[in-house]
Amino acid sequence: MTTSDPFVHVITHPLVQHKLTLMRRKDASTTSFRTLLNELAMLMAYEVTRDMPTQDVEVETPLETMTATMIDGKKLALASILRAGNGLLEGFLAVVPGARVGHIGLYRDPATLQAVEYYFKMPKDMPERDVIVVDPMLATGHSAIAAITRVKALQPRSIKFVCLLTCPEGVKALREAHPDVQIFTAAIDRQLNDHGYILPGLGDAGDRIFGTQ
Ligand code: URA
Predict the structure, then answer these.
(1) Does 83 sit behind a cis peptide bond, omega within 30 degrees of 0 on the bond before it?
(2) Where does 5-phospho-alpha-D-ribose 1-diphosphate bind (predicted)?
(3) The ligand 1 atom nearest the CA atom of 204
(4) pLDDT digits (tens, 9 = 90+) for 28-67
(5) Which fold does the domain 8-51+75-210 belong to in CATH?
(6) Residue identifier of the C-alpha nearest atom 2 of ligand 1
(7) Could you point out which of 54, 76, 123, 183 has its C-alpha 20 to 30 Å from the C-alpha of 152?
(8) Structure pTM?
């Protein structure tokens, strides 16, 4: 599914779609799931950082001096929603190695499906930072909404949200709660089931990343 909402970006690049399909397969091993997730995170990081400001700098090549382009000293923070968000960190950090990393511990109350916070640690200087909140699955949206609410209270310069997979229910909930936050995803699947899982989805992302299923 695609969307005309300019705040929702479905990354349709063939490499992203191919790797996502391999991850969906129920017989994908933990090793290949992790490898694919790393690769996907790198490809997604490339898209998510597309609007980073740049500046012209002088550089001396072995042959002459030229004016070239560099990132404009932006301070980036990644905020991982534990535990599955950690699965996206390695790939993101491969592309933006200087980013600081915060963690937000939330668990889903199985009865209410609401997010309950148990850990919150962010880098310093948040008002100077652009934040990318990462969690592979945007399902009910409860965790993402709670995490972004906490991050927003620290008044960062901007916040983006990145997931691998979402569903119409998750997109709607997050858009309504945080209309200023851009969402990046590799796919918007059909629906959420009664247990808060995305269909067809890929199962429990945390279990598949850490091999705890
Ligand atoms: N979290 C997951 O890991 N998978 C889903 O389908 C929904 C939430």
Answers:
(1) yes
(2) 83, 108, 135-143, 204
(3) 3
(4) 999 999 999 999 999 999 999 999 989 999 999 999 999 9
(5) Rossmann fold (3.40.50)
(6) 204
(7) 54
(8) 0.93
Domain boundaries, the chain: 8-51+75-210
Side-chain-side CA neighbours of residue 114 (13 Å): 3
Q: Does the annotation flag 142 for ligand binding?
A: yes
Centre a 10 Å sphere on the Cβ of residue 10 and count the other Cβ atoms it contains.
Answer: 18
Q: Please state the atom number of ligand 1 nearest to the C-alpha of residue 201.
A: 6
Is residue 205 part of an annotated ligand binding site?
Answer: yes
Amino acid at 144: A
For the range 6-9, what are the long-range contacts, defined as Cβ-Cβ under 8 Å and sequence gap of 24 or more? 7/175, 7/179, 7/181, 7/182, 7/183, 8/171, 8/175, 8/182, 8/183, 8/185, 8/188, 9/47, 9/182, 9/183, 9/184, 9/185
CA 95 to chain CA mean position, Å:
13
